[in-house]
Design goal:
Layout (H helix, E strand, L loop, with lengths): L2 H8 L3 E9 L3 H13 E9 L4 H12 L1 H17 L4 H11 L11 E4 L5 H10 L3 E4 L7 H6 L4 E5 L7 E2 L2 H7 L7 E6 L9 E6 L11 H7 L2 H12 L14 E2 L4 H11 L3
């Protein structure tokens, strides 16, 4: 056994290569840091964030230009509003003892998109035992087929009822607070439709908003991500039989967000 392997074993860190695919950000780094503390070999493939223009055109084709523009306005408001919720964000980080800043000791490989041929080649060359997705593009069917190991995803919502985006927010809007939580699931060709591996549920504080819901869901869910990766490395993945309605959600248009905020205090 090499000196590095001996050190990792002594530190109690699980052997087996974990490749994390993300577009970066505080929430993904909460998860990455937690994984690196538990697993001996974690490498990050960081893709460039999708442009707002690409987002707007794709969403407009699906939902219409008015709704797409309203959703983009909410995204901009959310980014701007985060500066006013930093105190609550720091409290969440302290409560769950997590850190959302990049660790320079964790290898990071920059790519344009995980679906590009060079990125796929990088992943294959790493010979991962599992690929873990968090806040990245959807993998195309060809990309998924080219990855020779289990691919699992962290989703800030309870599947299948709250697939897509802003799962915690929509659970509250729908008076379904018991389903405010997160899911780790296998990845297939659909939007958060793969087999559910683990779920966690949280109770947001009164001062939580759309700006802090995903942070809370992520910080409280590092344990289920670790458990799923352990299962994948041990070839012991066991999807759950989760029944119930299935729906894909999106960002609320700005007028919906303001209405729910003023009328019901759900921001």
């Amino acid at each position: 056994m090499t000196d590095i392997a001996s050190q990792n074993q002594a530190a109690g860190r699980r052997l087996g290569r974990v490749v994390v695919v993300t577009a970066g950000g505080e929430n993904p780094w909460i998860m990455i840091n937690a994984l690196a503390a538990h697993f001996a070999d974690v490498t990050v493939i960081e893709e460039q964030p999708e442009s707002k223009g690409v987002f707007l055109r794709r969403r407009a084709r699906k939902l219409g230009w008015l709704t797409a523009a309203g959703q983009l306005a909410t995204m901009i408001a959310s980014r701007f509003g985060k500066r006013f919720t930093r105190k609550r964000a720091e409290a969440i980080l302290a409560t769950y003892k997590v850190k959302g800043t990049p660790d320079p000791t964790i290898p990071v490989m920059a790519v344009a998109s995980i679906n590009h041929a060079d990125a796929i080649s990088h992943v294959r060359a790493l010979e991962p035992g599992v690929v873990f997705l968090i806040s990245c593009r959807m993998l195309k069917a060809a990309t998924l087929a080219a990855i020779p190991c289990p691919v699992i995803n962290f989703h800030a919502g309870i599947n299948p009822a709250y697939r897509g985006l802003m799962g915690g927010y929509w659970a509250l809007v729908n008076k379904d607070a018991e389903n405010f939580g997160a899911t780790v699931h296998l990845v297939d060709a659909g939007v958060d439709t793969g087999g559910v591996l683990y779920q966690s549920r949280q109770t947001p504080a009164k001062n939580d908003t759309m700006h802090t819901y995903p942070l809370l869901q992520t910080a409280a869910s590092t344990g289920i991500a670790i458990a799923a990766i352990e299962d994948a490395l041990g070839q012991n993945l066991r999807p759950l039989n989760v029944a119930g309605p299935s729906r894909q959600w999106y960002h609320p248009p700005i007028w919906t967000w303001i209405w729910n905020g003023l009328r019901r205090g759900i921001w």
